[in-house]
Amino acid sequence: MLPFTEIVDLGHELYDGMPCHAATITAFYTVDSFESTRRASNGRRCLHNRMMLLSEHTGTHFDAPSHFDPDGCSVEKVPLSTLVLPGHLLDLTGKRPHEPIGPDDLALAEKGSGREVGPGSIVIVRTGQDVQWGIGDFFTERPYVTAPAAQWLVDRGITLFGTDLVAIDDPDEWWEPTHLAFLGAGVPMVQQLNNLGRLVGKRFTFIVCPLPMRDGTASPVRPIALVEP
């Protein structure tokens, strides 16, 4: 008997032209088509493949410490033992766009979860933005996590941080102090998670496997949750 009852897909689909950060492109274009290969081979071969052009930070993605820390660990050096962890969901869905999520908010959500935030886990902040992903100006019309809130989690020794937010910092703080608080402390992040509503009130194991890109600052991922009985 398997030790879980459900597998929840926590990633957004990747697609041609999908939104990403400014000055980046997400493109999937055909290299070989069924038609061209069939014609070139007189019908002896028929295949299709595409080229990908995208940022390391496209869609649901994993941020390595090297994204903000010149001496931080890059993607391919992140230990696998830190990528399969018990999940701890904190419900911040009451927060509206442009409202901060501070330490007091996290402490209240921690109390509501019935468990203490601590080492050896991924803490996931759920805001409900996953259902608004790609709608309107979702890059800026969102809540945000403050740097003191990030430090509150770092001080509790969490291993990973996750959220459904497309970006975690205050849109007006272009220097991104929240990113620095996590990544500067060696705590990687998984952003733009999806389907978090399916994890409310449940215990689960979180699994995320970034591509082992040499010197990578990030990687698109398809994380999953294994829901416990």
Secondary structure elements and pairings:
Elements: E1 6-9, E2 27-32, H1 34-40, E3 49-53, E4 61-63, E5 84-91, E6 100-101, H2 103-113, E7 122-126, E8 144-145, H3 147-155, E9 160-163, H4 177-183, E10 189-191, E11 204-207, E12 218-220, E13 224-227
Walk me through this protein's architecture.
The chain is of the alpha/beta class and 229 residues long. The chain has 2 domains: 21-54, no CATH class; 61-227, Putative cyclase (Glucose Oxidase, domain 1, 3-Layer(bba) Sandwich), CATH 3.50.30.50. 15% of the residues lie in helices and 23% in strands. The protein is built from 4 helices and 13 strands. The protein has helices spanning 34-40, 103-113, 147-155, 177-183, and strands at 6-9, 27-32, 49-53, 61-63, 84-91, 100-101, 122-126, 144-145, 160-163, 189-191, 204-207, 218-220, 224-227. The strands form 3 sheets. It has a 9-stranded mixed beta sheet. The longest helix has 11 residues, at 103-113. The chain is globular. It starts with 5 loop residues before the first strand and ends with a strand. The mean pLDDT is 96.
